[in-house]
Design a protein that fits this description.
The protein is α/β, with parallel strands linked by helices. The chain folds into 3 domains: about 10-60, 434 Repressor (Amino-terminal Domain), CATH 1.10.260.40; about 65-160 and about 295-325, Rossmann fold (3-Layer(aba) Sandwich); about 165-290, Response regulator (Rossmann fold), CATH 3.40.50.2300. The protein is about 45% helix and about 15% strand. A 6-stranded parallel β-sheet has the order 2-1-3-4-5-11. A 4-stranded parallel β-sheet has the order 7-6-8-9, sandwiched between helices. The longest helix is centred in the last third of the chain and has 18 residues, at about 295-310. The termini are far apart.
Length: about 325
């Protein structure tokens, strides 16, 4: 016969405290005297008590969960971001529910699942958000914060890095170093990050009397960036420099140039990325790139989300954080 679970009443009786004291002991950020906490924890350990999160959520009307929506896990940049988010929210007594959407936008079924999950807030990690879903969340009083993406809707908070000026720095660097046939490999077609990086990049080239010699679509994917590289280098003359809209694609460019075409980086072709992932510093790549403030972006987004959850007031706020150029040896 299945053993009946230990109740909070039993813990309270053994510890000689009230049931509300037991509840406070296992509630994040609740006030409780240290001696009382010690007695409750000792009694809970002796009885093998585990608090029922579902029952507590019915009482407090808070699930203590954050719905995280992503479209890519193969890109190490977003895996790092997810790791920081999980650790940060866990420190505040929240846990993450992960939902995977498509590159363009999460499907309607995914959005329905998110709403049914009763999550206290939604964190969009480099995933597109439809205006209709944004309106529905705001209408229901569910806070939504986007990281590394922007959307034209006032009710949604957004945290991003300065993609335009990051792209501008890349264009200026390549122009100043004498590159003539400069190519660009874009991210997702509808992505605000790719669009803003491209705009800054083109503006810098124009300011130096240059233009983008060729463009290809990489969709922020390794395999797509490989295919884009093959297209750009199918004939002669080929580009003497490539700006890939993120490091994940830039690494694919370098691998393809070296392994398939026998070209040297940077002697034959200069390559620049965007993100400054750990792999960018590896000896085999030494990638010149633009560093995004990954941890700061997560911290800012979490603060915005938790403030709205705690106050019950859903209001959109946008923050743009500065980027830092990182010069290594993938450019001459």
């Amino acid at each position: 016969m299945k053993k009946r679970p230990v109740t909070s009443q039993q813990v309270a009786a053994l510890a000689g405290v009230s049931q509300s004291a037991v509840s406070r002991c296992f509630s994040p950020n609740a006030s409780i005297a240290p001696k009382t906490r010690e007695k409750v924890l000792a009694a809970a350990k002796q009885l093998g008590y585990r608090p029922n999160a579902i029952a507590r959520s019915l009482i407090t009307r808070s699930s203590r969960t954050i719905a995280v929506v992503m479209s890519q896990l193969d890109n190490p940049f977003y895996a790092q971001m997810l790791d920081h988010a999980a650790r940060h929210f866990q420190q505040h007594g929240y846990h993450l529910l992960l939902f995977m959407g498509s590159d363009e936008a999460p499907t309607a079924s995914v959005m329905a699942d998110i709403l049914q999950s009763q999550a206290d807030g939604i964190l969009m990690l480099a995933a597109m958000l439809s205006s209709s879903f944004a309106e529905e969340c705001v209408g229901r009083g569910i806070p939504v914060v986007m990281i590394n993406r922007t959307v034209a809707f006032e009710g949604v908070s957004q945290v991003a890095s300065d993609n335009y000026n990051g792209g501008y720095w890349v264009g200026e660097l390549l122009a100043q170093r004498g590159y003539e046939r400069i190519a660009f490999i874009a991210g997702l077609p509808e992505s605000s990050t790719s669009s803003q990086r491209r705009q800054g990049f083109l503006a810098a080239l124009a300011a130096h009397g240059r233009h983008c010699w060729a463009e290809a679509q990489g969709d922020y994917q390794f395999a797509s960036a490989q295919a884009a590289t093959r297209t750009l280098f199918a004939g002669t003359p080929y580009p003497d420099a490539v700006f890939a809209a993120n490091d994940h694609m830039a690494v694919a460019v370098i691998d393809t140039l070296k392994a398939e075409m026998g070209l040297r980086v940077p002697e034959d072709v200069g390559v620049v990325g965007f993100d400054n992932m750990p792999i960018a510093a590896w000896p085999s790549y030494q990638l010149t790139t633009v560093q995004q403030p990954l941890q700061e972006m997560v911290t800012e987004a979490a603060a915005l989300l938790l403030t709205q959850i705690n106050t019950g007031q859903v209001a959109g706020e946008s923050k743009v954080l500065p980027v830092v150029p990182v010069i290594r040896h993938s450019t001459r």
